Give the backbone structure.
Amino acid sequence: MIDQSLVNSNFIGRDGFRWWIGQIAPIEAQKSQQEGEGWGNRFKTRILGYHPFSKEDLSDDDLPWASVLLPPTSGSGGANFFQSVRIRPGDVVMGFFLDGDNAQIPVIFGIYGRTKNVSQDAPSIGFAPFTGYTKRVKTNNATITSEAGDTEKNSQKNNSILTEDKIKKKNEEVEKKNEEKEEEDKDLKYQAISSTVGGSVDVANDCDDDFLTEVSSTLDDLVAAVDSGTDFFGDIAQATSKIQKMSNSLVSSTMSNLYEKLVPEMQGGLESLYEKIAPISGPSAAIAAQEALIPKVKGLDGLLECAPGKIVNGLNKTIQDLLNDALLSVSNTGICIAEQFTASLLDGIINEISDTLDDALDGLDSILSAGFKVSDVLKSSSDLFKSVGAFVDCNQTNSRCVGKVKTFKTGGNVKKPFNINASFDNVLGILNSDSGTSFTKPNCADVDFCGPPVVNIFGGDGIGGAAKAIMGGIVRNTDGLSDVTADLSRTGSIIGVEITDPGVGYFTSPPLITFEDPCNNGYGSAAEAIVDFNPSSPTYGQITAIDVISVGENYPVSPVDDLDAINSDQVPVGVINTIVVNSGQGYVDALVTDDNDIEYDVVIQNGRIVSAIPLNTIQSQDLPVITVTSKTGTGAFIKPVIGRLPLTPQGEVVQVIDCISPNINNIVGYVNGKPYTGLYHIMPNGVKMTGASHTGNDVIIYDTPQESFRSARSVGITTIMTTLTTTTTQGEIIGEVSMPDTSTYTPPTSNPPSGGGGY
Amino acid sequence: MAERQNQNWEGRAVDTYGPKYSLDVNNPQMGEKGANVFLQRATTDNEVRQFCALDESGKYMMHNEGDVEIVAGKKGNGELGINITSQKASIAITCTGDGDILIKGSSVVIQAREDIALKAGRNISLNAPQAINLSANKVQANGGSGNIMKAIFHVMGGGGGSFVGRVFSKSRVGRDKL
C-alpha cells in the first residue's frame, strides 16, 4: 500500500492522505491576513495531535497558515466568480497536509457547524471553544445572537415579522420556560425584526372625515412606541404635532357648522329688531338699526377665515395634556379610547372657539336669542364632524365607501373599519356628559376576558358575510405569565372557518377576512373568501368557502363549557370538502391523500383534477396537507376545507360517508360555467350536448368553465349551433347520469332517470 | 404565548453573511400574516434595520428603518423610468408622520376613471401664472366668505353667497350697503 511505503515523498497524493482536525486561532493571530492585506485564503490554525494545548508552548502567532480549499461552487475569482470564505476564529475545521508527514502546509477543506452548546466565551487555551465575534465583527441589538450553525431551531435565530408588543409577550414565555431548563438547553429570546412592523397607515380617502380614524391610529402607535421605551418625549411631541395638524379640519368644520347655525339665528334677530323699532321710531330708524350691525357681522365673517389657524396653534398644550392623561390611563387602545380622546379634545376646541368669538359676538346680543351660547350650539350639533358630505354628489355612488379599508398595519393585516356614525354619536354623548376637557378612562379600556378570535368579513362589494372560527392545534399555555396572559390557559390556531351567513352582493369583488381576538394575542392567520361569480348560479354573489392560507398561532380558545365554540378537541371537525387551487395537467389517474391517511375521491376531466372529496371522515385537530401522487400528471394543488363532521343519532362521527363514489362527481362538462352531470349526447362532429337525444333546445357542454362562458357570451356561436341542430341527426347516447341530493344520497335504482337536466 | 406544535423545520435553509446580513428560507416561525417563505434582513452598525420578505399569505414586504431611494437612471430607453402598477387593488402613498408628498415633473397628469377628490385639512391653493380652467356640466362653489361668495350673493341674492350677505338677505338693508 502506498501509505506503507518506506520512502515517503511528503507530496500530496504520493504518500497517502494525512487528515487533521484543528481550530482557527483567535483574530489577533491572523494579523493582516484578515485586515484587507492578506494573501490567499489563509488562517492560523491549531491542529489536534500536532500542536499543543498550551499557548506558552506554541503561541497562536507561531501556528502555521492553513490555506482554504474552496468548493467548486464558490468560484476562484476568475471572471469575477467568487464567494468569500466564511471561516471565523474558534471554528473547528478539517483538512489535510499538502506535505504529508512534514505537516507544515495544512489545507482546510471543511468546517464543522457550531451547535448552541458551543461556548461563546473569549479565547483562552488552545482548542477551547470561543466566539466568532471580534472587536471589529460584533453583535448588536439588531443582530442574530445565536452562533449555532446546525439544524436546531435556535440556530441563526431570525425573528418573525411581529410587532414589538408580541415579541415582548413571546419573550415572557421564553423566560418562564427557561427557568426550568439547564443553561445549555435554554432558548434564545426573540428580537424585533424592525420597528417598522405594526405601524398604522391611514390611507387617503374621500369617504368620511378621517379624524376619529387617525386619532385611533395615532394613539395605537403612541402606546406601542412608549411600550418599546425608546424616546418617550419625542414620541409624545410627534403625536401632538400630528393631532394638532389633523385638528385643522375639525376646527374649520366646527366653525363652519357654527356659522351655518348663526345665519338663521341672526336673520330672525334682524327681523325681530326691525319689528321692535319700526312701530315706535319708523321704518327708517329700524333699517338704520339693522345697518348699524353690518360692521359687527363683517367682523364675525372675517374670523371665519383667520380664527381656525389661531385656534389650532393654541391647541398644542391641550393635546399634549390629553395624550399624557391617555397614556397614564390605558394600555390597550381602540376606537372607544379614540372616542373619549376626541370628545375631550373637541371640548377644548369648543371652548377655544367660544373664547375667540366672545368679542366678535359682543354687540350682537340684540339679534341673538337670550342665553345664546356658542358652546351649547356646537355641543348640540349632531353633524359636528360631517364636513365632507359635499364631496359626494349625485354621480358618485355612496356605496363605494361602504366597507372600504382605511387603516392598514404595516407587515400585517388590515383593520376592519368601524362604524363612523355610531362613533360620532358616542363622541357627542361623551361631550355632553360634562366630562370636561380632561381625558377620562372609559370602561372599554379594560379587557375583562381574552376570548377567542372573531372572524371579520368586510370590504368587497357585498354585505352580510359572517362566519365563526374553527380552532385547532390547541396547546396549553405556560402557567404564571403576566396578568395580561394569565387567563389564557389554552391557545390554538385557526384551522377552518364555518360560514354562518354567505352574504349577498359580492358580484365583482370578494370581501377581506381577518381574525381578531380581544387581547390581540393571536397572530399569523390569513384567509381568503371564495365567492361565486357565476351569474346563473343560485349562490351568485355569495361566499361559498373560506380558504385558510395560514393557521396562525396563539389565539385564545373558548372555555370548554362554551357550547357555541368550535374547538376541535371538543367538537368533531375534519375535512369535509376541498378547494382545488390548481387542477394541474396530464392526469390519467391520481392518488390523493392527506396527513391523516384519508383518501379522496378524485374527478379528473381532460387531464385535470376538478374535484376531490374525502372518502372517509375522521376528526382532525390540525389543517392537514393534501398530497397528490400520480405517474402522469403534475401541478395539482388541493387544499382541505375543515368543517363540522356529520354525526350519527348517537352523536358519534359518521366514519364512512361514501364507499362508492357518488354520481355527483360524474361531471360530463360545463354549461354556463357550471359543472353538468345530467344526460347528454354527442353530435356527429364530436360536440357534446345536453339531453339524452337531440331536440333543438339542447345546449353545448364544454370541457372547461371558461370555454362554456366564452360560448355563452358569443351570440354568433349560438346561431351556428342552432343551424347545426336542425340539420343533424340524433346523436348517440353514451352516458346517463343524474345528480342525487347528496344530503340524502341513496344508490341509484336500475331504472334510468328521466329528463335531460342536471346542472 | 405558546407557539403551535408540529412546526415544519425540515424545509428551513439559512444563508448568513456575518452579523449584518442573512437570508432565511422557510423558517416556520409565525409572523403577523403567516410564516415567511423567505426573509432577507440586514442591519447597519448604527442598528438601522432593513428586511424584505414574502410571507405565506403572499404578501411581499420591503421595510427599512432608514430612508429608501428608488432611482431610474439616464440610460433608460423606455417611456416609463419607474413604473408602479397594481393589477387588482389600490395603490396608496401615505406619510404617517409629519412628511409631505411632493410630486414634480414637466407636466403632472392625474387621471381617474371616475372621480378625483382633493381633500385638505386646511387650504387648497391653485396657482397658475397663465390660466385656471374649470369646465364641467355643473360647476358649484360653496363657502362663507371670499370674493366668489360676494359675487354669488350679488347675483343670486338671499339664496347663496357670503355669510354677511346671507345674514342680511331677509332684512331691509340694501345690498349696496353690505
